[in-house]
From TrEMBL:
The chain crosses the membrane at residues 28-51, 89-115, 135-157, 177-197. It holds the Pfam family 7TM_GPCR_Srh. It comes from the Eukaryota. Residues 220-242 are annotated as: Disordered. This is 7TM chemoreceptor. PANTHER family: SERPENTINE RECEPTOR, CLASS I (PTHR45830). Keywords: Membrane, Transmembrane, Transmembrane helix. It comes from Ancylostoma ceylanicum. The gene is Acey_s0083.g1616.
Length: 242
């Protein structure tokens, strides 16, 4: 998630002219992006390492309350942990996602403001705005298709009361199926957005489609030809014997 912030930071700084008070040295940007990378990953790693495998403590209880676990028990790597520890990991990820969204919105605002205050030509400004919008669209696609459904399912799993049983478990299963179905379409929507916002890709696809459908369009149904009428010409008279 930190890579999204880094992308918008470099995008914003590249549009600032020399001498602008907000122009920052590239070395400082590299240090800041590296710090963001390590901070985000270390926080998630530490939250994950605090989750302990409580197999001796929770195994009898889980096997008694959830019969479906019996088929998975004994598989290498299958761990038993408390829900509170999973919630801690989810909260860390949620805080990071919130920071990324707020920072990205702020950097996008600064980028458009720098375009408004710059002295470059209007044609260049329009091109930069178009590129910025396409960049936002490409970044928004995985957020809408992957992150939001995934976080929604994780929140249901972390804070739902499975002991209630009945309709609660059924609704959670339905939401999980819908979220996984939506996440599986990320490749399709990502490719579609990438082709639509990039002019070279769009022209290549259009040309390929034209070449595919061109033989079908040029092929015309010709009417069946009538059988040629065969005439019976008179045979030339053969000379008789002399």
């Amino acid at each position: 998630m930190g890579s999204v912030v880094q992308l918008f930071i470099f995008r914003w700084q590249n549009l600032l002219v020399a001498g602008d008070p907000l122009k920052v040295n590239k070395r400082f940007i590299y240090v800041a992006c590296t710090a963001i990378f390590f901070l985000f990953n270390v926080a998630v790693t530490c939250a994950g390492l605090t989750i302990k495998n409580r197999v001796e403590e929770l195994r009898p209880q889980y096997l008694q309350n959830y019969s479906c676990i019996s088929s998975l028990d004994g598989i290498p790597g299958f761990n038993y942990f408390e829900m509170e520890e999973l919630r801690r990991l989810f909260l860390v990820s949620t805080v990071e996602a919130f920071i990324v969204v707020v920072a990205s919105c702020l950097l996008i605002h600064l980028t458009f403001r720098s375009l408004r205050d710059t002295n470059i030509s209007q044609k260049t400004i329009d091109m930069q705005r178009k590129f910025q919008k396409s960049l936002i669209l490409q970044v928004t696609t995985p957020v809408v298709v992957v992150i939001i459904p995934g976080c929604s399912v994780m929140s249901l799993v972390c804070w739902a009361d499975f002991r209630a049983g009945g309709s609660m478990v059924i609704h959670i299963q339905e939401m999980t199926n819908l979220a996984i179905l939506l996440i599986s379409t990320h490749g399709f929507f990502g490719t579609l957005i990438m082709i639509s916002v990039n002019h070279p890709y769009r022209m290549f696809v259009q040309e390929a489609l034209k070449n595919c459908f061109k033989p079908c369009a040029s092929r015309k149904l010709e009417p069946a030809s009538r059988p040629s009428e065969v005439s019976n010409p008179k045979l030339p008279s053969q000379p008789g014997p002399k």
